[in-house]
Design brief:
alpha+beta; about 400 residues; transmembrane helix; 6-stranded mixed beta sheet; 6 strands
Length: about 400
């Protein structure tokens, strides 16, 4: 509820201008919102790397290994084992790739164990003549499927799998009675098996980490800029409100100093109390206290008591964190009604996680309303205002719901 609903009837006592611009609450650096952007950037980078790894593994398996296997199938020691192992790895790799892209990868170590069993079987079934040819497809292909199996884990796991693969190959070479040329070929093949998959695996991890770090730095910079803009806008709005409130108070003091207003006049007293209450609440807004709304209401209640109005303040529950704009709309209408109260007043604040209700009860008296809207229910954005009078009491209530 904005302050214009509490505008005094006196033509020179201008109401506070309604503030329709809400100042965003600065985010904590480690809040979930602040961490969402770096995580999203890292996820996008990691997804791109996953797509590349899956594409390399399946393309290599189909475009390079399959033609070599089909052309040399008659020269294998056990052709059915080599071809069957190729089909098994193709199906398993496709499933593992799809699951990896969906973010729910297969269990790594059972998958890695299956690949190592296939590795040993193909080396045994390829035979001596195909040991170092492209037809022995596990040399060039299996390392990429190891990458899919342990994606997202430490590189030590991938190195362990590739080392086991190299050990299986070494056993196969030794079984066939190697010569120096076979040992040289073995070293070259092991180097190729290690270098490319490890480079892709480590490179993707480094890229994801750098993307996350740069996104975090950028998000922190934007958060700082947003907080600075919010603080500057809040300061400007506060200065504007202070100028308006001070102007209203200055007019009252000017009338008193110039003899144009009688200090014994109830209307003049009400104008003074309303101006003082608004100034006091405006000052209370910037206080660093656990419950800002209660603090602002207590400031208005203290001022009423100092002006001789007995007032009871009852609080039930603890208000949730509320923006300044919401606190203003909850407090302003009741501040105006409190300035017009006579005899006694009872101010009640009932708070929950999703709702805050502030009620004010004062004795009714004859005469038209000098503050506030006509009786009934009024909505002002997120805050609902209700005002009733029955000849005995006046009841005003503001209610905020999440």
């Amino acid at each position: 509820m904005s302050a214009d609903l509490n505008a005094p009837a006196h033509p020179t006592d201008a109401p506070e201008a309604p503030n329709r611009t809400s100042v965003p609450t600065p985010r904590e650096p480690d809040s979930p919102t602040a961490l969402a952007a770096p995580a999203a950037v890292a996820h996008a980078s990691d997804r791109g790397a996953r797509i590349a790894a899956v594409a390399i593994a399946l393309a290599w398996h189909v475009a390079i290994a399959l033609p070599a296997v089909l052309s040399a199938r008659a020269e294998f020691a056990a052709p059915a084992v080599v071809l069957g192992a190729w089909i098994l790895v193709a199906v398993t790799g496709a499933v593992a790739g799809v699951r990896l892209l969906q973010g729910s990868p297969l269990p790594p170590w059972p998958l890695a164990g299956l690949l190592l069993v296939v590795d040993a079987a193909v080396f045994a079934a390829a035979g001596e003549r195909q040991l170092f040819t492209a037809a022995n497809w596990v040399w060039g292909t299996l390392g990429w499927f190891f990458v899919l199996a342990v994606w997202g884990r430490r590189v030590v796991g991938l190195i362990a799998l590739l080392s086991t693969h190299a050990l299986i190959a070494l056993v196969a070479v030794l079984v066939h009675g190697p010569d120096p040329a076979d040992v040289a070929r073995y070293v070259m093949y092991v180097y190729g098996t290690f270098s490319l998959p490890v480079a892709v695996f480590v490179g993707s991890t480094v890229i994801v980490g750098l993307a996350r770090e740069r996104a975090a730095v950028s998000a922190a910079g934007h958060a700082m800029a947003a907080e600075r803009d919010a603080a500057e806008r809040g300061l400007r709005e506060r200065r504007d409100r202070l100028a308006l409130v001070s102007s209203a108070a200055g007019r009252v003091l000017g009338d008193l100093a110039g003899g144009q207003a009688d200090p014994d006049d109830p209307e003049v007293q009400r104008r003074c109390m309303l101006a003082a209450a608004r100034l006091r609440r405006l000052i209370a807004e910037s206080d660093d206290v656990p419950d800002p709304l209660l603090h602002e209401l207590r400031a208005a209640a203290d001022l009423a008591e100092r002006n001789g109005l007995p007032i009871d303040l009852v609080t039930i529950g603890t208000p949730p964190p509320l923006p300044v704009e919401v606190r203003r709309r909850l407090a302003d209408p009741l501040t105006g009604t409190l300035a017009d109260a006579r005899g006694w007043a009872r101010l009640t604040v009932v708070s929950g996680l999703d709702e805050v209700v502030v009620s004010l009860v004062t004795p009714d008296r004859e005469g038209p309303e000098s503050t506030g809207p006509p009786p009934g229910e009024h909505d002002d954005g997120p805050v609902q205002y209700l005002y009733e009078r029955d000849g005995n009491i006046r009841w005003a209530q503001t209610r905020w719901r999440r």
